[in-house]
């Protein structure tokens, strides 16, 4: 039975009730990001779609929303990446292998796989935006025959901020994905492209029928969309991930509300055409 079919038939957990997850792997991957691999202690695998997210908590500190950083095609464990920026994320990143986190999810709507299959795919990931898009990237690579040409752009400010170095090394050599990377500021060891992520468009030919996924810092969206407009990619074929705006995850706190949209309920993945006039979404 496929992962999607299992997801549809399996009983869904109470999204208000945290479940215990054991940390089976913990690795500091940058100065501020820590990569965790988790396994559910109750023996029930976590079922989700690429682009969905979950709330991660440490009792006594609170919880924060985090996107899945691994694909649902790999069911025994799942990955998250946490950036240390505050009290809760600091408590999470202090944990090590063998300790326990609490999670609730999956939450929200992920990438529309039914609208991506059978098409050319371009993923544009900036900075930590590679974490939630990694779930989709690995899903596509695990089911490569279901998709046509697959191109991936990844940009960071400096080489030291690159994530998932083992993955990057594989993608550079892979024939299954056309991988392009850039940094805003190079160091003495960097041999690749230097410039903002939109400079990578000069290196490829993007068909107007391509389905595009964008995830990264707010400033990036405007310029990537302008490039896609110039190519002629319809805005109905562009999907954006806005998970950075979430807090409670269940539409109660109002933190993620943008006009009539709740990012946690209506997203975090949106068709760009549906929210193109919501300027607040990209600030």
CATH-defined topology of the largest domain: Rossmann fold
Beta-strand residue percentage: 25-35%
Uncertain spans, ≥5 residues at pLDDT below 50?
Answer: none
Alpha plus pi helix count: 8
What is the CATH superfamily label of the largest domain?
Answer: Nucleotide-binding domain of ferredoxin-NADP reductase (FNR) module
Distance between the termini: 42 Å
Largest sheet: 7 strands, mixed
Shape: globular
CATH architecture of the largest domain: 3-Layer(aba) Sandwich
Q: So what's the CATH class of the largest domain?
A: Alpha Beta
* Helical residues, percent: 10-25%
| SS elements, strand count | 15
Could you tell me the radius of gyration in angstroms? 18 Å
Average residue-wise pLDDT: 91
Order of helices and strands: HEEEEEHEHEHEHEEEHEEEHEH
Order of the strands making up the biggest sheet: 10-9-8-7-11-12-15
């Amino acid at each position: 039975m496929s992962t999607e079919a299992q997801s549809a038939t399996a009983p869904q957990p109470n999204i208000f009730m945290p479940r215990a997850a054991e940390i089976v792997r913990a690795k500091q991957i940058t100065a501020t990001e820590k990569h965790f691999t988790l396994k559910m202690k109750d023996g029930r695998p976590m079922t989700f779609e690429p682009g969905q997210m979950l709330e991660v908590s440490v009792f006594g500190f609170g919880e924060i929303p985090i996107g899945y950083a691994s694909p649902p095609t790999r069911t025994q464990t799942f990955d998250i990446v946490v950036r240390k920026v505050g009290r809760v994320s600091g408590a999470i990143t202090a944990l090590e292998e063998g300790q326990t986190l609490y999670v609730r999810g999956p939450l929200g709507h992920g990438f529309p796989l039914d609208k991506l299959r059978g098409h050319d795919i371009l993923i544009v990931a900036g900075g930590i935006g590679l974490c939630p898009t990694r779930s989709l990237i690995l899903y596509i690579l695990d089911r490569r025959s279901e998709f046509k040409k697959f191109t991936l752009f990844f940009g960071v400010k400096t080489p030291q901020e690159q994530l998932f170095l083992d993955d990057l090394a594989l993608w550079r050599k892979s024939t299954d994905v056309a991988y392009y990377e850039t940094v805003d500021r190079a160091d003495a060891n960097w041999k690749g492209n230097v410039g903002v992520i939109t400079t990578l468009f000069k290196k490829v030919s993007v068909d107007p029928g391509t389905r595009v996924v964008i995830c990264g810092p707010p400033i990036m969206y405007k310029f990537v969309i302008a490039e896609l407009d110039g190519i002629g990619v319809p805005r109905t074929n562009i999907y954006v991930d806005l998970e950075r705006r979430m807090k409670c995850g269940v539409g109660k706190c109002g933190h993620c509300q943008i006009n009539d949209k709740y990012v946690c309920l209506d997203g975090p993945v949106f068709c760009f055409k549906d929210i193109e006039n919501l300027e607040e979404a990209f600030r």
